[in-house]
Amino acid sequence: MTVPRDYQRGRVYAWERLDVAPHGPSPVPFAAAQGMVDAIWAESGLCYPPKVEKLPGQSRRVLAHATRLVLRLPPAVPCWCLLHELAHAMAATHDGETDLHGPRFMGLYLRLLTRYLRLDEAALLASLRAAGIDVDPDAVPPFLDPLAQRTERSGTMAGGEGAA
Questions:
Q1: Left if phi > 0, otherwise alpha if psi is -120 to 50, otherwise beta: which for 160?
Q2: Is there a domain that residue 32 lies in?
C-alpha cells in the first residue's frame, strides 16, 4: 500500500483554526464520544462504526487520531475535532487506504460540519476556495464506492476486476 502525500494538511489545519474551531469549541467528554460516533455513523447510513479508544497519554503531536476502525481521543475533545476524526474514518478503508486531508476527506468533513455544527455550506465552500483547499462535495466513503476503489488501486477509470 502506497500512502499518498498529504499535500493540503497545513492548509486544512490553518483553515480549521480560522473558520471552524471558533464555531465548535464545546468539548465532548470521552465517555460520550462512542455514543455520538455511533449515532452519526448510523444517521449517515453506515454500518459498523469505528471504536473509540483513549489517545495514549504520551501523545503530544496530535489532538486525536483516526483510522477506519478506531478513533483515538483525549479525555475531552472539541466537537469540531470529533467530526474531523470521524471524517477520517469515513474517508478510509479497513486496510488503511485514505486520501488523508484530500478532496474526499474534505467533502465528508464539510457534510459533517454543515449537518452537526450547522455551519453554512456556501460560506464554508467559499472559505475553502479562498484557502486553496480541494474538496469533493459529492464524496462518499470509499468502502461504499466500488468504482473509486478500483480507480485508486489501478490508477485508471473503470475497467479492472470487480470491487474489493
A1: left
A2: yes
